[in-house]
């Protein structure tokens, strides 16, 4: 079975024109039509946008299962990472990647049902702006408490906004047997800023259980304005096809 996955920093639904428009973000995701949607910067704890239910609204808009991992909760306003999926979500867990007094960060893990007893473990994460902060977060991510906690007999995808300014590999991740899909496919995958993408802030890593087939930034008139990041889209080959009908969408908040 082939699946499409997208990693997308939606910038709280605020576009490059300064307008909040979550419907526009939803329209971009409809253009992509992915089976798995990994989102970053979902929600708004500073109360500069009118919606407090951004992940729920996007899931309802697209008719997908949803899990949300808030990294900041303030006065009822939440902010963090989300995963939307056509595949049933068997389990979700949010991991704290915060460092000191820097902005709270996290990684959301979802175990998706591929059928036949096989799961796909998907992580959506957002790392910090400083190099020293990211190095500590990468160490946390690679610890036994996070990546190794997933049942490694099943395939693994780690994606999100790494805030890594170089266009090459993130060395610490490459040494741990997960591979940068864009480098593996020798594909251009620069996603930031949208008007003139120069940087590969957004990345998708896979382990040996996932075969990436194609990866590209989604560049359309709409995606250039909906957020300051372009969506990064990967087509992949999953090991086992889904053999049973999907259950109705459910929402997991954690």
UniProtKB/TrEMBL annotation:
GO biological process, one term: GPI anchor biosynthetic process
Keyword Nuclease tagged: yes
Gene Ontology, cellular component aspect: membrane
Annotated ranges, domain Endonuclease/exonuclease/phosphatase: 6-229
Signal peptide: none
SUPFAM superfamilies noted in UniProt: DNase I-like (SSF56219)
Xref: InterPro entries: Endo/exonu/phosph_ase_sf (IPR036691), Endo/exonuclease/phosphatase (IPR005135), GPI-anchor_lipid_remodeler (IPR051916)
Superkingdom of this protein's organism: Bacteria
Pfam families the UniProt entry points to: Exo_endo_phos
Any one Gene Ontology molecular-function term assigned to this protein's record: endonuclease activity
Residue ranges that the Swiss-Prot or TrEMBL entry lists as coiled coil: none
Keyword set, alphabetical order: Endonuclease, Hydrolase, Nuclease
Descriptive protein name: Endonuclease
Species whose genome carries this gene: Pyxidicoccus fallax
């Amino acid at each position: 079975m082939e699946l499409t996955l997208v990693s997308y920093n939606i910038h709280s639904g605020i576009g490059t024109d300064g307008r909040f428009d979550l419907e526009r973000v939803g329209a971009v995701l409809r253009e992509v039509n992915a089976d798995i949607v990994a989102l970053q910067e979902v929600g708004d704890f500073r109360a500069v946008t009118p919606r407090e239910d951004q992940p729920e609204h996007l899931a309802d808009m697209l008719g997908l299962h949803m899990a949300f991992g808030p990294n900041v909760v303030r006065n009822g306003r939440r902010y963090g990472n989300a995963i939307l999926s056509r595949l049933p979500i068997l389990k979700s867990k949010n991991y704290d990647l915060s460092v000191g007094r820097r902005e709270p960060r996290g990684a959301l893990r979802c175990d998706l049902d591929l059928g036949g007893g096989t799961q796909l473990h998907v992580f959506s994460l957002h790392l910090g702006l400083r190099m020293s902060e990211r190095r500590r977060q990468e160490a946390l991510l690679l610890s036994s408490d996070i990546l190794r906690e997933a049942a490694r007999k099943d395939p693994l995808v780690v994606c999100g906004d790494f805030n890594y300014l170089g266009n090459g590999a993130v060395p610490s991740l490459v040494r741990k047997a997960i591979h940068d899909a864009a480098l593996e496919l020798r594909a251009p995958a620069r996603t930031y800023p949208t008007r003139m993408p120069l940087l590969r802030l957004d990345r998708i890593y896979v382990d040996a259980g996932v075969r990436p087939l194609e990866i590209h930034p989604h560049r359309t008139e709409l995606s250039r304005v909906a957020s300051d990041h372009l969506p990064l889209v990967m087509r992949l080959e999953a090991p086992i096809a889904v053999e049973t009908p999907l259950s109705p969408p459910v929402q997991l908040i954690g």
